[in-house]
Amino acid sequence: MSRSKEQGGDGIDRSDKSLRLHGSIARDLGIAIVTGEYPPGHVLSSELDFAERNQISRTAYREAIRILAAKGLVESRPKAGTRITDPSRWHILDPDVLAWTFAGEPSVTAINDLFELRMIIEPAAAELAAKRRNGAQLAQMGHALEEMAKHTLASPLGQAADQAFHTTVLKATGNAALIALASTISAAVRWTTIYKQRKRKLPRDPLPDHRVLFDAVANGDGPGARTAMHRLIELALADIDLPERQ
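Now predict its structure.
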């Protein structure tokens, strides 16, 4: 095993120093779970065994399991240990779970599901944003476009700007329920953008499509913003070239 899992050794990825130890353990175990390395029903090593094999504190492992349990990936029971739960219980829209999913090879179904979710939510949100946006939000969207143009979506900075653009659209709706989805939509935008560049460069420049959307929102054109967002997502999915869902 390449990560801090159950075969001993330190094995913890310390490339991201900002992660606390238990967060790093949770991430590594989370990736193993959502990518199928640990299948549903699998029982993880005991707290004591895992801690000794990986030379970590039992507290760090216990905190990592709490993180995973909060995301629905595991359940712990006295005497039965910690077991991987059925995928139907996973919080698949949690930004961390999305990141862990894309750390492996996500299924075609998983990617299509994300784009269907975006297609349901974001066009309607764009229409509301066109009616309710304020000057500060337009400025934020405009700055995000400038950063996307400067850095391109092939770079982390450009991808962060793309996330900020879509997040601001949701915030501009003024709808608390939609705003609560911002972190999920933002993560979906990020990971699908990264995913489609794994084996090839981006087949086209998506910036013009974002500019069309921005102009519609800035002009208060609700129907135009809805259409522009729909087109933007449609083209993003086409870039990945997945089989069509029936």
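Confidence is low (pLDDT under 50) at residues 1-18.
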